[in-house]
Amino acid sequence: MDETPELHSDVEETARRIAEMEVRGAASIADAAAAALGTQAATAESETPEAFRRTMRAAARRLYETRPTAVSLPNALRYVLSGMDGDDVETLQTTVQQRVSAFRDDLDDAQDRLGQIGAGRFSDGDVVMTHCHSSDALSCIEAAVESGADIEAVVKETRPRKQGHITASELRELGVPVTLIVDSAAHSFLDDVDHVLVGADSIAADGSVINKIGTAGLAVSARDRGVPVVVAAQSIKLHPKTLTGTAVAIERRDIREVLDEETHEDIGAAEVANPAFDVTPPRHVDAIVTEHGQFPPESIVTLMRELFGDSVSEPWTDPDGTGATGASAASGGE
Question: Which residue of 93, 102, 157, 174 shows the fewest CB atoms closer than 10 Å?
Fold first, then answer.
């Protein structure tokens, strides 16, 4: 029986930081995972190509298991490992590191392209409501501000981890006037809002958007008020293996994010649920903005086919470690 490959400490530390949300945001998770694979490849002491592939697959599995809903993570792992090629260890190491560099470079460029495309949806004087924290969504506002538009923001604080506070801080750094509100006040503020702008952790083939819990309710309220809902998401967040949003595994977080042990005992709660995400049906979304353009949610499957082809595998489970796939899982393709 093969011994379990020894993983580099950087892989273990990256996995811990992703699992504990010290690294958050789909693009940041993907970048960190790719970098960790690069470190594993560069420092591997494998004596044979087969041993090297086993080690790389083990590293990818360790990272993959940390966050089941953030599809950017398996997309990053898939991109890196599917380019692993060579007949000797040195060549395999080189191809992995080249793949990591290409992925990380394109990740940076993709967000800039997305921001420029998304900025076109906003006009001078618009008020935008945000939920949670999304670097993709913020890139759209930043590009609009840089083009000369005066934008204001209503920012939901997004409990229980209050990621909206990060959004509010970064918008203030851009010079955007911010009104921070509690989540339950969103409906009351929608009459004063021109757009709802959110990110995504995953997008299913039918255009369903999996994002921070509370997104679906906000989208329903926005639709009721006639406020367009725009989703900003790099193509690393497309979920090519999932036909509908209901098929995506929804991560359940620690209940201590909601209640500390003392409060839990005081209120006598038998059970506390803390789902991290919910699913917004495509009928409540007006547009999905990617670095490849804007798409009605029902048409996002066309982009998936262009980028991924009709068949997508998971190379960290493949016996040969190649994980043949369609087009690149990175945001810009190859």
Answer: 174
CATH node for 121-307: 3.40.50.10470
- Please give the CATH number for the structural domain made up of 9-112: 1.20.120.420
Domains of the chain by residue range: 9-112, 121-307
Among 226, 207, 213, 230, CA closest to 129 = 230
Nearest to 214 by CA among 183, 244, 187: 183
Burial 77-115 (b: 16+ CB within 10 A, else e): bbbbbbbbeeeebeebbbbbbebbebbbebbeebbebbb
326 belongs to an annotated ligand binding site? no
pLDDT of residue 260: 85
Alpha helices in 5-159 (DSSP H): 9-19, 26-43, 49-64, 72-82, 89-119, 135-146
| Predicted confidence (pLDDT) at residue 249 exceeds the cutoff of 80 | no
Residue closest to 84 by CA, chosen among 30, 44, 111 = 44
Neighbours of 309 (CB within 10 A): 13
Residue 132 annotated in active site: yes
15 assigned ligand-binding residue: no
Confidence of residue 21 (pLDDT cuts 50, 70, 90): confident
